[in-house]
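Field reference: "sequence" (input) and "structure" (output). Example, Tripartite tricarboxylate transporter TctB family protein:
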Amino acid sequence: MTATAHETTAAPGPAPVDRPQLGLAAGLAALGGYTVYDATTLEVGFADPVGPRVFPFVVGGVLVVLAVLLVVATLRGSRPEAEDGEDIDLDTPADWVTVGKLVGVLVLTIATIDVLGWAISGALLFAGAAWALGSTTLVRDVLVGGVMSVGSWYAFYVGLGIPLSPGLLDGIL
């Protein structure tokens, strides 16, 4: 046997913690905690055995349990993996330009819904979101958005009895 230097391989260190997953868990826990707290402030009638608190308690509790499970999985090194059918790279950074466009379209919708009404603002919301996501067929997007927003306006107003703002189309819709 010849004398050789001992070859040592460095043991792999712990996997880096996926901070966005922990952020999601914190958001879930905060939302669940607030939902449970808010459920405690609901007034319950004496003749209602179940009351309006049950559903918020269940939803809030499930959110908190999911947050705890996500923290445990994240700390154990679990990392989301792309499905076989997905063609995205999880290491690619977010496209903040597209996010900014979508936020701008949403803010425009919120700012104009009282004046223009849901039918027009909804059509602009659909067309603007399609544009922000890369669509180049503006006329088709506005038409599809118009059909969808007018249809949803009638579904809410006639089907559910919830009036949405008609805006400029007051008396026409």
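The chain has two domains: 19-75, 96-169.
The mean pLDDT is 85.
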